[in-house]
Structure formats: C-alpha cells, structure tokens
Specification:
46% of the residues lie in helices and 12% in strands. It is α/β, with parallel strands linked by helices and 494 residues long. The longest helix has 25 residues.
Amino acid sequence: MFKVGFDNEAYLKTQSEKIAERIAKFGGKLYLEFGGKLFDDHHASRVLPGFAPDSKIRMLEKIKDKAEVIIAINAGDIEKNKVRGDLGITYDQDVLRLIDAFRGYGLYVSSVVLTRWQEQPSAVAYQKKLEGLGLKVYRHYPIAGYPSNIPLVVSDDGYGKNEFVETTRELVVVTAPGPGSGKMAVCLSQIYHENKRGIKAGYAKFETFPIWNIPLKHPVNLAYEAATADLNDVNMIDPFHLEAYGQTTINYNRDVEIFPVLNALFTRILGESPYKSPTDMGVNMAGNCIIDDDAVCEAAKQEIIRRYYNTLCDVRKGNAEKDQIYKQELIMEQAQISTADRPVIAAAVERAQLTEGPAVAIQLNDGAIISAKTSSLLGASSAMLLDALKHLAGIPDEVRLLSPMVIEPIQNLKTKQLGHRNPRLHMDEALVALSVCALTDYNAKIALEKLPELRHCEVHSSVILSQVDVGVFRRLGVNLTTEPNYQSGNLYHG
C-alpha cells in the first residue's frame, strides 16, 4: 500500500539552494550536467514515494530566469534511429518533445548540440530540420583516444575544434534524450572555450541515483542497479571521497572510473581541479529528504521485483541478454526479497491456472486483491479494471457496469468495420464505454469517479499485454508487471 516516504517540497527548496551555492562557487557561470529523466521521472517517484515525477523540472522552473538549456544528441544515434524504450520514440523525435516540454515550463532552450559529428547523412538532414524550426545547432566532433588522450583532448585539435555554444545565462543545463549522448563532453568542451575567452566557468553533475549519503546496499540504491542492469552499472563506495575526507559515500562505477581522467582534464583546463572526488561533483539532496525510511525501503523492494519481471519479458521479446536476468536475481538476493513479496503475482497466476486463460490481478491501496479473467466481451485487464472500480465504489459484484448492449456495437465496429481480429474491449475502449454509460447510469458514474484511487496500485498479468493496455496502466499511475509469456503462439506480436 502506498505510503509517503519523501518530502518533495523540502527537496525542491534544498536542491535549488545547492545549485545556487555551486553557481556562486564558480564565479557566476555553471554548466550542470543533468542525468536521468528531467520529465516523468517515474522511477524516482516509485522508489521515493512522495517524489513528484516532474520535481526536477519544477526545481529548474524556480530559477528559470537564470537558466538556459542545451540539449545534446549523438549524431550516430540519429543515424541509427535509436529509440527510447520507455516512450517508444526515436532520440531525434525526443529532442523536439523535450524542447516543447521545456518551453511549456517557461524555460529557455538556447541550442541543440550534435555530438560525435561525422557528416552522417541523417544528422545532416536533422540539422537542417532544426534550423528550419528556428533552433541554433552546433557540432562537436569525435576526438581520438577520448577521454584518456588528455594532451589532445585539451587542445585546439580536441575541444578547441568543437563549435563554441553561445550562452547568456549563469546556469547552463545540459541534458539529452538518453545515455551516451555526450552531455559531459559538451560541458567540458564549453569550459575549455570559456576559459580561453577569460571566463571562469564550472561544472557540476545532477543525478538522483545512486543516492550518495545512504548505505551502499540500501534498497533504493539496489533499485538503481536493477534499473540500469543493461548498462552494467554497479554502485560502489567512492574511494576518492573516502581518502580525501574520511567519509563513506556512494557513487557508481562509471563516475569513479572516469574521475582520474576528469581530474586531469580540469587541471589542464583550469590550472587546478575544483573537486577531490566524483561525489564532490554532484549536487543531489534527495537523501536528505527521506522522511520515512521504512516506506522508502518497501517501495524500492517492490521496484526491484518489477525490474526483474521487466527483464524477464525483455529477454522473452529478444531485447535483452539472459545475463541481465542473473544480475536481477543477484540484486533480489542482496535485498533479501523474492517474487513472493509481490502478492498480485500469485493471485494472477492462480486465476490463470484455474481458468486456463489470461488473467490479471490488482492489489488496491486498501490491501484488497482482485483478479479477473478474459471473457468473450472483455480482455482480462478491462474486466479487472471494472471489478476494481466496483469494489472501490461499493457496487455489488452482480451489477454490470457495461451491458452487452453497449459492448456489442463496439465489437462489431472493431471486427466488421476496422478489421480487428480481437473483438474484446481493451482498457481504453472499456473506459470510453464506461464514460458514455455514466451519463445515464449512476453506478457507472460513481465507478468512474474512483479511477484516481488506482494510482500507485500494483498489477500483475499472466501474459504480456498489448501496448494499448500497458499505456493505459501507465497513464493511470498503476505499477505493472507481467509474466514472460504471450497469449498466443504467433511469431509476431504487434
């Protein structure tokens, strides 16, 4: 059951103050690398209950008059049509989505940087498209031996070859559609150019996870490892911070491994390094805003199990290697949990076995578990949704929210007019039908009003669901897992 464990308002306040301190430290010009998701950070909201998915952007909104945004995208990712797994859109499309989103919050997007530029045809076309939309576009180039070849990197043939991005504000946020986009390289290249122009500028990093001031094996940090199993990220004690300050802090392997190189780059560019450890570079106050550790631990453990099932399904779909499953199992062992700690799994699987067909179960915030099977009229997800709403509204089981007279015309439209093979109503169709019925039926009306109470509930399906149903669950704020099985034996599952 959902229980708040994180003070979001305190986070917004302290995080803003920390960034302001860091700007002042560097004389009024800071390049801030933003890792993770600026928008819709649902991982953070799941493992830190109370964390708002838009917290980071709301924090920036507070200082929008002092900030501008640079978006970096790897030109190679444009050429390969790289797709964001969570949104199902390409990186180049996501850049446009991000710009619109930033502008919606009143934030100024000054430019787009195309990193690792090698005249890729798709990247050339993309630059023309962006410029046609009135955006400033800059190109940064690959550097041989980057980042270890420090004499070359910090020279006119390294960073000096990159186009200098013109900026006007004291805080420059550098973000990207996803990992590998070159955010850090853009920041360091800019510092090199700024320094050559006699401007003192600094660098800092803003990533929510791992949280540096909670234990290494805290479930929240383990959940981050589970979320990044495909990247082979491993949380570790920051040895540089321990040596410099005698304080144990947590970072992840990539930042620790790259720090000696970064330190040398800072020294070469600025004359001395402003940081003694990768932890020093961060400006993350999330750990200070946990107000109920038990609630946060439980939420993180549930996320670890969800990530395990996501990986099982990715392997089943051919989108991941089996090694990732073994890593997820190891993380579960470290967290001392199993699939039995997610009650909806057993409920869905048991219902599927009894009915010999697909089944879906939900655990509501009052602790009740409701399961449903596929019928001739409704998919299992739709049937479960209606049953859950009836429970929340106190409507007897025997009452039908949707009569066959309402469902059958929709089915006829789907199969006879639109050519669908599956006549059963998906969740979006069931909700539209329920909305229509709510105009004349009191039970449908009060059931529909209970939709917001599904937020933060846990759901498990005995089969991999259609993208339609997955999308509805996501929009309802429901935490979904599925068994790694398809309903049919078909080779194509669109």
